[in-house]
Amino acid sequence: MPFVWIVEISHMTALAATQDSPLRPVANALHGHQNIALWLLLGPPLAWFVVFYLLPLFALLGQSVLTFDEFSMTVTNELSFDNFRTIITEPVNFDIFWRTFSMGVAVTIACTILGYPLAYYMARYAGGRTKGLMYVGVMLPMWASYIVKAYAWTVILSKEGVANWLVGGLGLTSVLDTLLAIPWIGGNTLSTSNIGRFLVFVYMWLPFMILPIQASLERIAPNLLLASGDLGATRTRTFFRVTLPLSAPGIAAGSIFTFCLTFGDYIIPTLVGPSGDFLGAVVYKYQGAVGNMPLAAALTLIPVLVVSAWLWLAKKLGAFDAL
Amino acid sequence: MRSERTHDNRAPAWLKVVVFAVLAFMQFPILMIAIYSFNIEDSAYTFPPPGYTLKWFGRILDRPDVMESIFLSLLTATLASVLAIGLGSLAALAVHRPRFRGHDALNIMFNLPIALPGIITGIALLSSLRLLKLEPGVLTIIIGHTTFCVVIVYNNVIARLRRLPASLVEASMDLGADGFTTFRRITLPGISTAVLAGGILAFALSFDEIIVTTFTAGAQRTLPLWLLNQLSKPREMPITNVVALIVIAVTTLPIIGAYRLTMGTHSTEGASK
């Protein structure tokens, strides 16, 4: 197979060489001026990103130091750091931050625990058809519409829904009630509890954890495992001393998605779980219903900072090589 | 390839059970939506459904709101993915060039729209569209979607460029081809399936996007926005389920196609660094 491939390639290369294009002088000129070639390629996407992405982001940053007049409900151009003072001094904001942050961490841990075995199986044991089917099994829920999945869970978790039907059918109603009675994570019903919200988040981002782990596991050279075995390590020891550390970049890459997506989400928190106490939902409320754009803008700096820190950490762990 | 003398090649039973359970958990909500779209009852969440019918599938044709949303979503997703194919491929070709200053910064910049929460992209876009005096509408939806779709094409193409052996380009140049010819005969055929796969993924992502869209849509309602609206003001629940099923089909079927396009390129020679 590689041989055929090489022949084909060299054939293509030879063809390329024999057909001289009329643009050759231009090509040569560009070759001599690499910078011009670079700017021709980079120009359109860079211009798009500057106009429609970077400038808006900086404009948003700028708005965070404007003032919102509580009486007239309008934004004035008076510069101050009051918004940041409000964020830091109001204890409720700290609660919101902590709740969002801990959910992001919990979701990341749960996705790792659930996703790792599947990724491991795909990389180590599944072959051919099974592997193809498993890919589809992971990608189908990954790409099935976000809002449809969120909607499906509101139906599943509702009082007459399939979740309660299943729990009842298995005779686990009392177990569920005990779980829901736990402060912090519980609630009145599944669909208004943090357990429900956690479940939906885990479901949503699980495929984003599985695929990077699987990719990093695939990249481990089989002879490393052989060597470990030859040197007398048991399978368990090989797993914990060789496989798991070498797949850490995959976990770090997956955590970018599970953590960052949870941290910035605001649709799921409004549909499932206790009401209105998630960072994204609060930002949405301030910019929309309240119209306090400066405070909303200041609040968006929190996810920007936290996500940047997380990306930095993930980069340290080699996540970007694993993507 | 993965022959292990010291390691059993068969998975332990508990691992199989866990893998099966996780896979089942992942398909479960989609299965539920499929079941509910045949539900005979008009407005209930009751499980199991009391009966099954096909009538809701025909009913959506009589709902202009549904049809308009489907059309708008198809339109914006098509235009956004076409724009993203152009911008994303150019960006990948530029960043892939021999190292220059600002290389890493550009790579991070093109990845920002998926790393930063959608709500930030949405708010930022909305506030500058106001400054630019652009009315939120079809155009602004396309602008927003294109921005995050570029990332998908960019990442697909740059991953492929990294796997294409540099020696091919060198050989082509050595044999006397100029830059354009080499691009047309070597680079372009090499990246074409990655460009296409990226475009398909971008289409699916755009068709499905909701957070950025809420900020840029104005009075327009894409299919995901229509669905979100149904959650607070449901009208004929089973229609919602049918639409949900359609959205799943439109987003996932192309994905499987995109997967097939990129399949096998992972194991090409020289793939491992």
Automatic annotation (TrEMBL), chain B:
CDD domains tied to this protein: TM_PBP2 (cd06261)
Subcellular localization, as worded in the UniProt entry: Cell membrane
Pfam families in the cross-refs: BPD_transp_1
Keywords: Cell membrane, Membrane, Transmembrane, Transmembrane helix, Transport
Domain of life: Bacteria
SUPFAM superfamilies: MetI-like
The protein, known as: Binding-protein-dependent transport systems inner membrane component
Organism, scientific name: Verminephrobacter eiseniae (strain EF01-2)
